[in-house]
Amino acid sequence: MKKLAIVFLGVSMMLGCQNPETQTFTVDYESPVEMVNPLMGTDSEFSLSNGNTYPAVATPWGMNFWTPMTSKMGDGWTYKYDEYKIRGFKQTHQPSPWINDYAAFSFMPVAGELKFKEDERASWFSHKAETVQPHYYKVYLADYDITTEITPTERAAQFRFTFPENDQSYVLLDAFFKGSMVKILPEERKIIGYCRNNSGGVPENFHNYFVAQFDKDFEVTHTWGDEWKLAKGSTENEGNHVGAVIGFKTGKGEKVHVKVASSFISPEQAQLNLDREIGDDSFEETKQKAFTAWDKELNRLRVKDDNIDNLRTFYSCLYRVLLFPRKFYELNTNNEVVHYSPYNGEVLPGYMFTDNGFWDTFRAVFPFFTLMYPTLDAQIMEGLVNTYKESGWLPEWASPGHRDCMIGSNSAINITDAYVKGVRGFDVETLYEAMIKNATTSEGRPTSKNGNPIRSVGREGVEYYNELGYVPYDVGIHENAARTLEYAFADFNIAQLATEIGKGEDAVHFYGQSKNYVKLFDTETGWMRGKNEDGAFQAPFNPLKWGDAFTEGNSLHYTWSVFHDINGLAELMGGKESFSKKLDEVFEMPPVFDDSYYGFTIHEIREMQIMNMGNYAHGNQPIQHMIYLYNHAGEPWKAQQKIREVMTKLYAPTPDGYCGDEDNGQTSAWYVFSALGFYPVTPGTTQYVIGSPLFKEVTMSLENGKEFIIKAPSNDIKNAYVNKLYLNGAERTKTWIDHFDILNGGTLSFEMSDKPNHDWGSGPEDAPYSMSGN
């Protein structure tokens, strides 16, 4: 097993010595898995998000996660750090509290008087008697003197319940509401059944089939039916909300094990998943395998540093990046990859991934996959091919099927970014066809259960956009300016891919459309502004107004969403000096806002307001790339200072450790990239923009077998500024590095300082990519 060391440098003044002697102290730890805190971000609620996460006990990209439940069935905030009772341990597929869960069911051990109703069975617990790791969870349920332990595989898990001496010990299986069935098989020590709960995005035949195998005979069998009606002595129940109760006598400290697996395909596939992934393995063997899975992935980025809190934050963020999108495929009896389609309800060959909002993750999560996991990225792209074939459209927010959430046409960005960075092994021609469909029509989009089109699929308002060059403010389409800006960047990515695959005429057309951002720039105010169908700007206009023409932000946040043509945006603002002053303005003004569009202060506004960084809203995605734009303005030292401030001020490995929604790995991926010292400002190109590395050394183990080492030996809390930069020993003033330079392996060395170097990277030839050129 690899051992990493945290290095502490101390100075010892030896008696009689004129020079200090440097001593090295190391704190050894077995694995970066120990650095991860899955509770980071769990101290959240509707009105204020410190991450809106739950502790996911899972394997990387696992089909199923497991989590303790402090909240009621159906509550998107399933685990709230400040709550005191646990009411169950559920299999979950929830990507966000705003999207909520599907296919969930739970276990709960109890002892003494049988309590099976959700509120009555809840037990007091303490974080002091709780162990939370990516691969393992343990908690003491005080009301029952029972300890629960969980360890996962991709599609299965093991539970270990340690009971007190009691003649009435039970395990409950709650199959949840919205359609469920349970069947107890005492002679086999099994509970089988299904759950159908969902929050949308499923076909009519949607089921999650489960099988739970116990290692102890059942002495009691009950089920409950709708309205919590207990059917004593029964072994089967079906209805809207049913559950199973099995009971037995236990001795003090007796351990009862449950092996559980599930399938979206069939009961037989659930059993196959159980046999294949757990079989005869003990709890400890499954735990070790889950640990090894995390150890392998987290060790792809091996960090050396003297700040244990930064290490904990880094690996906690990296853990979040490696959870979504989840594998929504299974392996049949012939070991072939197959999936239940959440789009047409059929079982079909090939990959499928889900639970991802591309509005968030196109920015840094998918660029991270293209860099560190190209094989996985190709599988995800093949999953997009299958989504298009099965639904007629690319997904933009899938959970598990199409969901009506957020805006944009960001699937195009993920596809192009993969292809231009050399990822192959997927049907790019079919995906290009799908991208063109998104960009040309809104007809035939899938509908929700109420019959209305799912507006996040395709491009809402695309006919206006293609005719006028923008989505008008006054035609009943919300968030129109944000849509226009995001469609323009998607057009740029279509053009980039068209160039790569030899479709020159398409490339010219879409490069032209990618300049549509110009149509919304208001020279009077210097900000992006909604525009009416007749060509007049919206009036009145308040750039501080959240929502309305923009999405979960205001004009100060969205104006910078010209990822592909920063120089063009700077020219609109009057040149790079004016552009830089506009960037400064966001930070220097107070956190004033207009929330009248929503009628109340949404959590994203509150998170901006309380961080004391002006109108900079790092807690939401639209502005997260903005700090790096100082590089385009020839003032990279400003980016370095603010990047380091965000990393050290707005992130911590604690329950309140994020400054807003974590969002499927995106807010974490910002930190991971930024801690490395660079960030993908413009997905669809091969450049990463230089920032301020956080650590003294990071070794990146690439999938091609090569290593890329990032060194900043003089790094510390004060030395946030880049004085010099070297790539493989050659001094470099460019404020970016190419994807293929990293893939070739080598060393990127930073000379850090506590004072800004106004010369380094300040020339126009040093600036990162912009479509308009430098």
Characterization of this structure:
With 774 residues, this protein is of the alpha+beta class. Helix 6 packs across helix 7, helix 8 packs parallel to helix 11 and helix 14 (566-572) packs across helix 15 (576-588). The radius of gyration is 27 Å and the shape is globular.
Nutshell version of this structure?
The protein is 25% helix and 24% strand. The protein has 774 residues and is of the alpha+beta class.
Overview features:
774 residues; alpha+beta; nine-stranded antiparallel β-sheet; seven-stranded antiparallel β-sheet; 38 strands; 25% helix; 24% strand; disordered N terminus
Task: Describe how the helices and strands are arranged.
Elements: E1 4-12, E2 21-29, E3 65-69, E4 85-86, E5 88-92, E6 105-111, H1 118-121, E7 123-124, E8 130-133, E9 136-141, E10 146-152, E11 156-163, E12 166-174, E13 180-185, E14 190-195, E15 208-214, E16 220-225, E17 229-232, E18 236-239, E19 243-250, E20 254-263, H2 267-277, H3 283-298, E21 301-304, H4 308-321, E22 326-327, E23 330-331, E24 337-340, E25 347-349, E26 353-354, E27 356-357, H5 358-361, H6 365-372, H7 374-391, E28 397-398, H8 411-420, H9 428-440, H10 462-468, H11 480-500, H12 504-513, E29 521-522, E30 527-528, H13 555-558, H14 566-572, H15 576-588, H16 603-609, H17 636-649, H18 666-676, E31 678-679, E32 687-690, E33 697-701, E34 707-711, E35 721-727, E36 730-731, E37 736-738, H19 739-743, E38 746-753
Parallel strand pairs: 34-38
Antiparallel strand pairs: 1-2, 3-5, 4-7, 5-6, 6-12, 8-9, 9-10, 10-11, 11-20, 12-19, 13-14, 13-18, 14-15, 15-20, 16-17, 16-19, 21-33, 22-26, 23-24, 24-25, 27-28, 29-30, 31-32, 32-37, 33-34, 35-36, 35-38
Helix pairs in contact: 4-18, 6-7, 7-9, 8-9, 8-11, 9-11, 11-12, 14-15
